[in-house]
Amino acid sequence: MPTNPHLFRLKSGQFGRGEFCPKPGQPGIRVRSDDDLVFYNHPAQDGVSLAGSAVTADLARVPADVDRLVVVVSADPLQPRAVFTRAPLLSITQTGSPVSSFTAPDFTSGETVVVLAELYRRDNGWKIRAVGQGYASGLAGLATDYGVDVESEPAATPAPLPTQGRRIPGSAGPAVDLSKVERMAPGLLAPVRHASKALVDRDVANRRAAVYLILDHDWHMEELYESFAVQAFAERVLALSATLDDDGTVPVVFSSGEEPFLEEIRLDNYRGRIGQLHTQVDWGAGNVADAMRRAVGHYQESGAADPAFIVTQVGDEPWDKAEVRSLLQNTASLGVFWLFVGFGRGKLAFYKNLNASASATFTNVAFYDASKNPGSVPDERFYAGLVDAFATWLRH
Questions:
Q1: Closest by alpha carbon to 115, among 75, 83, 73?
Q2: How many angstroms separate the CA atoms of 12 and 222, rounded?
Q3: Checking DSSP bridges between strand 113-122 and strand 249-255, what pairing results, if any?
């Protein structure tokens, strides 16, 4: 038995200073006080300590009202124009366990701060999750998001994005201008171009749609969330949205055993976003029908003039097939197109066979098998599978 199974040591490589602050900057989640920011001028607090680039977390000493610890690295402010390009390497050591490591995707937007990982409470224990979310606003911007008071110059406020679903008659190419994508999400430029080409090739480049994403949060999906497969999939759907929906935002609904959880992923927050959100959702048998209703309700309440394209990721059969069929029939007249995208470990025969019968009536439904690892599917083939049936539906 390890002598202290609660003791974690986390070490980041490459340049930068290790910072550590309990609780992330998500809506409604804040640090308890400014003392919760552990950094070079305040190297220890409540079981968390910093020595050089190594952070040690004695989880048995972390107060009960702290449910999350966030590991952050920042570029040295004394180095002019210092930013992250290659992501820092994170090594994780726990007594009695093998060393594990994580390197986030490279950064291209002038990020000076990177959230590397989170330790969070789950089922009377602790789990660790790789994040890889970069900030270009510096440590002061990140600290402010997390509820730490800092003295800094006010950051420039970006121009507001257009209202979701606003129609752009006769326009072609990406709904969000490529210069905006380059400024806010340069890592998505290549997939945006591939998605745009897929629509051009199918003669629907001038059409608009409100894009939604439903994600399966059943137990069998846990590995795919932790390995960034779901994050990568959501990023590709966001890139598609940039070609169809002019606000650069995709509402995301998590389908679990509880009430569906709705949030959003945007061009300005997409890095690590799914990982941040999904830890707020309990695992359970995915209730696809409830998630579908939540997405349709949001679409109707938004007053969008354009049709809805609801990309629904599924990893297994629905437990209430009759209810799903009823929802598909009832939304056919609402301007809603459903694309069920299968990836995961479960059975998907129900979705594959929705339109297999000659008497099938689901004209607003299609299925795309993205394989067990959609990240291995090249962009050109991935977007062809994503938009083929939708483009046919739009043209008719």
A1: 73
A2: 25
A3: unpaired
Q: Give pTM, 2 decimals.
A: 0.61
Copy the structure tokens of residue 210. 């409100």
Name every residue whose Cβ is closer than 8 Å to that of residue 143 and which is 6 or more positions away in sequence. Answer: 21, 37, 150
Q: Is 163 exposed, middle or buried (0-12, 13-18, 19+ CB in 10 A)?
A: exposed
Q: Which residues of 89-123 are buried (b: 16+ CB within 10 A; e: fewer)?
A: ebbbbbeeeeeeebbbbebebebbbbbbbbbbbee
Report angle CA 226, 267, 211 to the nearest 5 degrees. 85
Give the C-alpha separation, 49 to 38, whole Å. 7
Q: Could you count the other beta carbons within 10 Å of the beta carbon of residue 167?
A: 12
Question: pLDDT digit string (tens) for 211-259?
Answer: 999 999 988 888 888 888 899 999 999 999 999 987 889 999 999 877 8
- Host H or E run for residue 302: helix 288-302
Q: Which helix (H) or strand (E) holds 129?
A: strand 125-135
φ/ψ of residue 7, rounded to 5: -95, 115
Q: What does the alpha-carbon distance between residue 82 and residue 233 come to, in Å, rounded to a whole number?
A: 31
Identity of the amino acid at 354: L
Nearest to 221 by CA among 344, 363, 304, 99: 344
